[in-house]
Amino acid sequence: MPNTKSAQKRLRQNVVRRTHNRAVKSSLRSSIRKVREAVTAADFEKAEELFRATVKKLDKAGAKRVLHPKTTSRLKSRLSQHIKNAKLKASA
């Protein structure tokens, strides 16, 4: 347990931030999963729509440092590549 007032406040802040960050990360994982499911179902229109929403969430998480900005960039790139490759396979 924290001994000083400042340490007690810091603990309270950390608890609030941790719960918020966990909620944001969970939401991101769900969004990414939905995009991947849409791609595997060959519903590219829905996948593109979900991808745009997911990119927005990723950008916000990176800007607020919930995730490292390079992590968000990597995830966006991989999702985009996943959609692109699936489209190529479907058209071939």
Percent in helix: over 70%
Query: How large a portion of the residues is in β-strands, by DSSP E?
Result: under 5%
Mean pLDDT: 96
Report, as a whole number of angstroms, the end-to-end distance. 62 Å
Topology (elements, then pairings):
Blueprint: H1 5-40, H2 44-63, H3 69-91
Helix pairs in contact: 1-2, 1-3, 2-3
Q: Can you put this structure into words, describing what you see?
A:
With 92 residues, this protein is mainly α. Helix content is 86%, strand content 0%. It has three helices and no strands. The chain is elongated, with a radius of gyration of 18 Å. It starts with a helix and ends with a helix. The model has no long low-confidence stretch (mean pLDDT 96).
Question: What structural keywords apply?
Answer:
92 residues, elongated, 86% helix, mainly alpha
In short:
This protein is an all-alpha fold and 92 residues long. The chain has 3 helices and no strands. It is elongated, with a radius of gyration of 18 Å.
